[in-house]
């Protein structure tokens, strides 16, 4: 997207709400007390999660993406992290400032008896703009690129077939630039990033970017939402 002609004030506003802004890098202990007063979330042990399937996606700030998949029925747990690059044990500072080849990504544990991988792919494409190269919303850089990861040929076919369907139906005005990438490894993000939207609803990035994005998704995918997530 060209920025020529966009008022300086608007550019400044977008920058202030970006994922690399001070507001996003704040750790929980620096956030106001009222942001911690949130609803409790069901938790699962590692052994309990092993009963479920996993899927991996990247589509911008992982705070936003985690919250979207958490709202989907059949999804048991979602973790924020890093994937798609070659560097071992990346940190948030390295990834968010484009110092690695990784993207902010999520690991989704889901019950295939309730939600299918095909439906998760639909959630992925329906909750972001897959025609934006190296960015999403106010966030720019390859660390925020769109990636649909697959673990086997069947998952790859589901992704590519759905992309072809979207293109054939002219759902978007521009070509889809989503990477279809073989899953290799997922690195868990630092603890303070997990459930960030839930735990910090008053953070300015959450209020102005994450929550509106989540609400747009909910409006279009009501039949996919968990009970009480409408």
UniProtKB/TrEMBL annotation:
Query: What keywords would UniProt list here?
Result: Oxidoreductase, Signal
Which residue positions are annotated as catalytic?
A: 61
Q: In the record, what terms sit under GO molecular function? A: peptide-methionine (S)-S-oxide reductase activity
List the InterPro entries: Met_Sox_Rdtase_MsrA_dom, Met_Sox_Rdtase_MsrA_sf
Please write the reaction equations for the catalytic activity of this protein: L-methionyl-[protein] + [thioredoxin]-disulfide + H2O = L-methionyl-(S)-S-oxide-[protein] + [thioredoxin]-dithiol; [thioredoxin]-disulfide + L-methionine + H2O = L-methionine (S)-S-oxide + [thioredoxin]-dithiol
Q: Which domain of life is it from?
A: Bacteria
What EC number is given for this enzyme? 1.8.4.11
User: Which EC class heads this enzyme's classification?
Assistant: oxidoreductase
Signal peptide: which range, if any? 1-21
Q: Where is the Peptide methionine sulphoxide reductase MsrA domain?
A: 54-205
Its job: Has an important function as a repair enzyme for proteins that have been inactivated by oxidation. Catalyzes the reversible oxidation-reduction of methionine sulfoxide in proteins to methionine.
**Family of this protein:** Belongs to the MsrA Met sulfoxide reductase family.
HAMAP family per record: MsrA
Q: What is this protein called?
A: Peptide methionine sulfoxide reductase MsrA
Q: Which organism is it from?
A: Flagellimonas iocasae
Q: What is the lineage of its organism?
A: Bacteria, Pseudomonadati, Bacteroidota, Flavobacteriia, Flavobacteriales
